[in-house]
Amino acid sequence: MKVFLSYRFADEQFVKSTKYYLTTQSDLIVYVYGDELHRQNWVTEVSRALSNTDVFVLFLGPALGKTQKLEALALANSLNDGISSLDEERILIVKFPNFTMPPELALFNAFHKLQVSSLDEKGAQLIAQELTISLGKRWSPAFDIPDEYIFEYEKDIIAAYSMDSMDSELIAKGCPLSWPSIERKPFTTESPLNEKDVGRFRDVDYSREPNTFRTEESQILAGALNDLSNQITMRGLWFPEAGPRKRLSYPATPADPLMTGETSSAGDSLTIGILVSGGIAPGINAVIAGIVERQNLYREKGGYALTIIGYQNGLNAVYRRGQHWRRLTRADVEGWADRGGSILGTSRLKEFSSVDPLNFASTDPLKRRDSLKRAVGNLCAQNVDILYVIGGDGSMRAAHALWRTARELGENTSIIGIPKTMDNDVLWMWQSFGFLSAVQRSRDLIQELHTEAESNPRVCVIQLFGSDSGFVVTHAVSAIGVCDLFLIPEVPFTMTKVCDYIFTRLKDQYKPDQRLESPHAMIVMAETAIPKDAERYFDDPDIGLSESEREYIRRFLEKGRVFGQTPDELRSGGLKLVSRVIQKYINERMSPDGYWKNFRVFTNEPRHQIRATTPSSSDTIIAKRLGTLAVDGAMAGYDDFMISQWLTEYVMVPLRLVVLGRKRIPRDGMFYRSAIASTRQPAKLI
Q1: Does the structure show a pLDDT above 90 at 179?
Q2: Is the whole model's pTM more than 0.90, yes or no?
Q3: Residue 440 contacts residue 457 (beta carbons within 8 Å)
Q4: Could you report the per-residue pLDDT of 473-520, keeping only the tens digit for each?
Q5: What does the alpha-carbon distance between residue 148 and residue 659 come to, in Å, rounded to a whole number?
Q6: What are phi and psi of 266, to 5 degrees?
Q7: With bands split at pLDDT 50, 70 and 90, how would you rate the model's confidence at 357?
Q8: Dihedrals φ, ψ of 7, to 5°?
Q9: Nearest Cα to 393, choosing from 602, 174, 151?
């Protein structure tokens, strides 16, 4: 829908802010004269825009501007002459303080009017919201980022875009109207790499595949789904294949022969930034090494100056400008690829989040916009051409918001996402680096703790990763056959059912006359596995929930899931509920036999041990390849994408698709069924 904004130049700042918020809506195309370079004369250009508009918005104060008067009169004349197709629902008046309707525009008195509450950023946002709603549309969040997780599974996204038209409710929630593509910058130079260089990080049989450069036609279908195969192909649901291109966009500045002493088609300098956001994960150093090594290969072959900035405090270092960075060279990353942890510091930054996970409420959009503008300004002050953001779903959302903000400010910094998540919950990533290392370490820890629980008969409750999904839990449980129960946020449960089930398992093992097996049990739970009947235990002193834990659990039960990072109070409260309710049940409600009076339940939270583990060989290889291919895409001018291994191929996924949700385990899928088969627990515990 095309929207024409008519205003006097004295009110330009307010109208531009209003336009900004309107353009965050997926299906609104907003025209404001003066935004672009104009090749046509004013009359011709504005007349064309007026003739093509679907909605006319007139901003009126105490007087009309000169050009505004011409725009309004042109519309009034076309209405009187029956030329304009606009009706009264498509003509809106925005009233400033001291509003006056000029006599020559008396016709507009019949049209719907909106009142500006304040001439500041907040007032502009409110007017944009009212305008959107007046047009019969649902107000959607800013930055093209939904304030909720719309999807939990990539197949559902593919199915939605396989339809003849996108569902209106999904659009209202923040889905783009059509399958998004990846922006690519203009080409400025030919790649300095040759075929041997290109294959340096790719296993290629050169006799069989001599050309390893990707072309514009190198596309990978988003899904291999038999029932949707025709629609996927016909509607162009694909991703650009990751890999090097022959034509590059960086460096963008031509070299000066007077300075270099020789002519070159390459640029003369390039500055890149690398940051890690969120917690650490096995493989981060391999990603960093892949980026640094690949960027240096381009530099060596291209003959230009390269500066690599390693931000040592994650997004905070970009937001709070200071000496929170270091220069990275190839020597700095040598020997680090197979080590755990991160050579660069990491942090989370709530100022970039659209929803505050600690309060389960939307953050202030104006403060968020100011924070993003500040970060973009700091990047530009350091002349950063390309920023690589290594992080999870929240970091990918921040990366996309930074890109949107940079474009709004007229800056051209490229933003590239590299998915890092122990939970394996980022959309469009088949299996994130570090995940298998986390599963293996979790399996080993479960085995060790099982030995403890079996030798000194007790129930062990282990809390693993899983702020919104149970991938680590289900995989670890499936990999070892000693667990009796697993609890994940995707599957509801009550402590009543859990206690009944554990009672049965323990009772089956307890044979006082034989003592062949000691009663024990292993329970593995994710961070946000919260029982549906949690409030039943809020006032129980034996459970010992703090006031803040009760509050966060109550909010979680209302919302149904966590948005972003798991609050500590929710994590600790969930572990108390599961472990202490079971403890009390065993001690008080099982057989009067004195054996159970002092039977114990112990807990273990090995999250930090798992994070810090050394990456497996496969995770190191995958992580380094992601870093390498991210550089290839960025140098070729692709922007606002996430590098990913999707199914069997490496691809570039538009961040606009990544931010639509957070991946979870389907209850009818193989991951859940495999774990159920391993524990033999009931499929329903509610």
Answers
A1: yes
A2: no
A3: no
A4: 999 999 999 999 999 999 999 999 999 999 999 988 877 666 556 889
A5: 10
A6: -85, 170
A7: low
A8: -155, 165
A9: 151
**Tokens 């088969």 correspond to what residue?**
677
Distance CA 284, CA 273 (A): 15
Q: What is the Cα–Cα distance from 191 to 281, expressed in whole angstroms? A: 33
> What is the rounded CA–CA span in Å between residue 346 and residue 315?
8
Residue numbers annotated as active site: 423
> Nearest-CA neighbor of 18 among 101, 113, 94?
94
381: which 2 tokens? 């002050």
CA distance 660 to 156: 11
Side chain identity, residue 331: A
Token pair for 150: 């719309």
Give the bridge partners for 307, in sequence order: 271
User: Among candidates 403, 385, 408, 406, which has minimal Cα distance to 640?
Assistant: 403
The answer to whether residues 473 and 525 touch, using CB atoms and an 8 Å cutoff, is yes
Q: Give Cβ neighbours of residue 179 (< 8 Å, ≥ 6 apart).
A: 161, 235, 236, 237
Q: How far is CA 667 from CA 470, 489, 673, 686, in A?
A: 11, 11, 8, 14
> Cβ neighbours of residue 258 under 8 Å, at least 6 residues apart?
none
pLDDT at 25 over 80: no
CA 38/CA 41 separation, integer angstroms: 7
Q: How many H helices and E strands in the chain?
A: 23, 23
In whole angstroms, give the CA distance from residue 536 to residue 540.
Answer: 8
Structure tokens at 124: 């502009």
Tokens read off for 658: 């990544």
Query: Which residues contact residue 329 at a Cβ distance below 8 angstroms, ignoring those fewer than 6 apart?
Result: 292, 296, 308
CA angle 326, 330, 332 (to 5 degrees): 50
What residue has token string 């020597």? Answer: 331
Does the pLDDT value for residue 34 go beyond 50? yes
The string of DSSP letters for 552-602 reads HHHHHHHHSS--SSPPHHHHHHHHHHHHHHHHHHHHHHS-SSGGGTT--EE
